[in-house]
Structure formats: C-alpha cells, structure tokens
Amino acid sequence: MSERKVTVTDETAGKSIDLPVISGSEGEPTIDIKSLPSELGYFTYDPGFTATAACTSEITFIDGGQGILRYRGYPIEQLAEKSSFLEVAYLLLQGELPSAEEYSDFERDITYHTMVNEQLNTFISGFHYDAHPMAMMAGVVGSLAAFYHDRLDMEDSAHRMLAAKRMIAKMPTIAAACYRHHMGWPTAYPQNNLSYCERFLHMMFSVPAEEYKVSPSAVRALDLLFILHADHEQNASTSTVRLVGSTGANPYACVAAGISALWGPAHGGANEAVLNMLHEIGDVKNVPQFIERAKDRNDPFRLMGFGHRVYKNYDPRASIIRKACHEVLQELGVDDPLMDLAMELERIALEDDYFVEKKLYPNVDFYSGIIYKALGFPVSMFTVMFAIARTVGWVAQWLEQSETPTKIGRPRQVYNGPVARDYVALDKR
Length: 429
What we know:
By secondary structure, the chain is mostly helical. It contains 18 helices and 6 strands.
C-alpha cells in the first residue's frame, strides 16, 4: 500500500475521510474503500464491477489499452511460441517455470490422474443423449467431490494441490466422455503413453472399429489454444470461482460454478456465436451487406468475435491465433465454405475504416471457433474446450485464494422495492 491517499468529503454531513491508495506492481492505482461505510455511511455502486478490485493476485496481468497479457510476468507471445500447455499450467499453479525434473514430475502426476471412477461414466450415461455438453460438464464436475473426498483437507496445501492436479487431469477425460455419450459411442479411456492434447484428441475421436492417428498439426493447434485460454484475470467465471471459494466450498463445486458462468454466450459461448453468425451470413457474396448492417446502430445484427470488453487495442491472443488459424487450415487441407466466408469477413473488416477507427478487430473467439471447427469439434463442444483450458486458471486462482485469509464475498445492492407496509388478510385483499 502506498502513502498516497484520496480524500472523500460529504459536504452535507461535514465529514471527510482519507482513503488509502493501493498500488500493485503494475496497473492502475486502486482506492481502498472498505472503511467508507463505517466512516461516512456510504456504499459504492458499480454494476458489473467494472471499476472494483475484489482481490489481489500475482497470476495474470492485463493492460487492455496496450494490448498486454502476461502470465506470472511472462508475455503471452513468448509462452505461445516457446512453451507447452502443461508447462504453462505448472507456471500458473506454482508461480515459476519448472526445471526439467520439476516438469517431468508434474507431467507424471497429471498423467497418473487422468482416469475417472467408472461410476462417473454410469452417471454420464444417465443424461439424455442430446443434452448440451456444458450441462453434463457442470453436473459431473460438481459431483467429483462425492468421488474424490478421501484426501481433501482444505487446510492442507498438499491436499489442495492434489485436488488441483486432479481437476486438470480429469477435465479432458470428462469432456470426451460427455461428447461420446452424445454421439452414442462407447467410452474411450485415456492412453497415458500420449501427451495431454494427443490423449484428449484420441479420447474424443477414436473408435474401436479402426485405428486413429492423432494429427501433429491438430495437437499443436490445440496446445496453443489451451495456452491462450488458460487464464484471463478476474473475468466472470474466474470471479465466480473465487466467490464460491470464499465460502470454503470444495474446489470441485467452485469449478462447477465456473463452468456454469462460462456457459453464457457473452463469455465462453462467444466462439459458438461466431459460427452461428457465419451460418447466418451464409455466403461470401453476402459479406459486404452484413458489414454494412453491422455499422447500422438500428440494425440488430452484430459482428460476433470482433472487439473485446477489456482490450481497447488488438487482443494479443488474436494476433497469435490468427497466424495459427491460417496454418492449420492449410496443413489440414480443410475445404469448407464457412472457412472461406470467415477469412473474407476478416479481410474486409480489417481494411474497413469504420472498424479500424473503432478498433473492432477480430478477437480470440473469432479464430478459436474456426480452428475448433477445422479440427472436427462440433459447435456444442466449443465452450467445453474453453473450460478444459480455463480449469488451469480457475484452480490456480482457487489455490492462491486458499493460501490467504479471505472474507466471504458479499456484494451490496441498491434497493428499489416497496418500503415497509402491513400485511392484509387474504379475505380483505
């Protein structure tokens, strides 16, 4: 906390209060207002919490104006180019990049925990065949506490880390099982001789009737997407995980809550919305007219996957994934009219003065949906893919929160309902 203070004066009451200013290692200074109610009798009103810091964290730093995203101080550009998803997972959980021995031990631990209790597969089979995979994921992950409670002392840091590793290891297994139930395919068990992303692709798409060879291009693309989605500071789902965690709830319940928050189309469902938009446009020849519709404030049509609430510049993840998107489409030899439509939409939008002036650039959701489709994932699985990657960030944030005393989350409200009134008996109303 710095020595700087901000003075708030209530002229009506004739009172003033000096509020301390908190300065992190980077980012905007933040006014500590927790003494405001007791000293002046006021709360603050901040819909969406866009100007409120609810925690301190050492995990992820974002500067939306400059287009900066760093995990534990490392630029996302460097991690995307040089690292792997599991190495990034270790970094987010432990705070530092691992040595060769530490990485080998971590990879072994994750691999060891890939299996799930067989009764979970029975549980999944109880869902209707056309249930949305995110609905199944939320239910199954929430139930993990009923299966893996043997070593879960919330006060023991080793137990908390074990739960975190279990979540990272089992999430792809659960996701693939939900997909295969939807498809009516038999369960595919994890092959622990494969890498994290290879293993997931094998569980997703292999069938007993024929050999399945994992594409190296698909593995590289999936690993990159997982790195880019691993954490993103205090977004809606991460804040949900922390809020639930503040009650002392087990990590499985916290992550299940995060999955539910991620499911929303304004959050994790954004890349699904991109594909729906492309289907609405329908053909490359229709792109110019839809571009004009997007400029019209009176037209309900909006370009999905363009612009970002946090980044007022180019989304740094988008510039990385854009290159990968073009490479994947070329390497996999994908011939899909929808992909041609997406590339034309990107080209026109990047050259149009309206979008350039308003800095409405394609964001990570625009390209991730295209890549997932090229890899063969159905649209209903897009948000599930996001959840697999973001599980690392969720458990890292949960671990960080668990290591320090945390007050239970309890936001205030501005009440606009009826004032006090007396009850009237039913026969007199």
